[in-house]
Automatic annotation (TrEMBL):
Keyword presence, Membrane: yes
TM stretches of this protein: 15-36, 43-60, 72-97, 109-132, 138-159, 171-197
Alphabetical UniProt keywords: Membrane, Transmembrane, Transmembrane helix
Protein's name according to its UniProt entry: Cation transport ATPase
Organism in which the protein naturally occurs: Rhizobium herbae
Amino acid sequence: MADVFRQISQNTNEIMVVAFFVAYPSLLLAMIILPIMPYFNRLSFWILAFSNAVFCYWLASDAADSDDRFGVGVLIAFAAIVLFLICFALGATISTFRRRKEAAANRYVDVLFAFVTSVPIPLIILFPLGIFARWPGIIVFGLLICLAVALVCLAFFAVPGLRQRSPFDRFGLSCLMLAATLTLSVTIAYVSAVAVWTEAERGAEGHPYCLQSGNRPVTTMMDASVLTFREPKYSGSGVRFLRNHGLLIVDAADGRHVFNWSYRKTTFTSDSLYDSPNSTARPEILCTPQQHP
C-alpha cells in the first residue's frame, strides 16, 4: 500500500492535468445539462454547484500558489474561475426560469446524488486543501473515525416526520458514502504515515534523529500522515514552494543534517530551508534527535 501511495504522490502533475482537463470540465458541463433534463432535482444542482466551487478553489489556489515564473499558474487559475462562473450562471438561469418537474424517487439518482455530495468535497478538503495541517495526528484520526461511525449510525436511524429507518434512501446513502470516504481518507493517511516513518529511519542510517512538523515535534506515527505532516495551504507571507512540509533532523558523526519531506518524490530531500542564506526563512529546530531501535 505504501508503494501505491508513492506512485500517486509521484504523479501529482498528471493528476492535476486530468483534474483540470477532464474531471473539472465534466462537472461544469453537468451544471448546464442537469437543469435541461425533463426531470431534475433542484437541490442536486446546488449541491453540484457547491462541489464545483470547492473544485474550482482547489485548482485556482494550487495553480496560483505554484512556482509560477511565466504566469501560467495565474492564467490557469483565472480560466478555472471564469469557466465556473459562466457555467454556474447558465445552469442557475436555466434552473430558475425553466419549469421542470422535480425528480421522482429513483435509486440511480439517489446513488448519484449521494456520490456527488459525499465523495469529492471531503477528499479535496482533507488532502489538496489540507485543513488539518500541523494538527496532532491522534486528534485528526480520532475525529475522522468517530465521525465515520456516527454517520453509519445516522444512516440507520429513523427521523420522525422526516424519514423512515431506511439506510438506502437518499439521506442514508449520503451518510454511508461519506462514512466510506472518511474511512478511505484515514486509510490513505495511515499508509502515508508509514511511508514517512520508513523513509525517516532509512534517511537517518542508524544515527539519532527526530521529525518536526512546523513548530511541533512529531511524537507518534499518526503525526506523520499526509493530513497533518504538511505545510498549511496558507501560512502567512511567502509562496508555498518556498516552505517545508516536514523536517527530518539527523545528528550524524559529521554534524547535524536537516532534510525536507517531499510528497512528490516521497522521500526526504536535502533542499530544506535550514541552510538557506535567508536567516528569516530558516526553521527553528524544536525537536531533539534521539537514537531509535
